[in-house]
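Can't paste images in this forum, so I'm doing it all in text. The chain is below; anyone willing to post the predicted structure tokens underneath?
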Amino acid sequence: MHDQFDVTLEDADLLGEVELTTNLIIAASESDDHLSEGQIDEILGVDPDAPTAG
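Text version of the structure:
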């Protein structure tokens, strides 16, 4: 018999966002001061030399 509630929920984009958020939380909790914009960009994998939209 098939259980309609026995499903695997996986969203790759959501998992990626959760991982980034978790990395930020860990870094912030390990830091004695506020994270700089550069530190946050590094944690998120932002390329500081990449052109911005707009």
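The mean pLDDT is 88. The helical segments are 12-30, 37-44.
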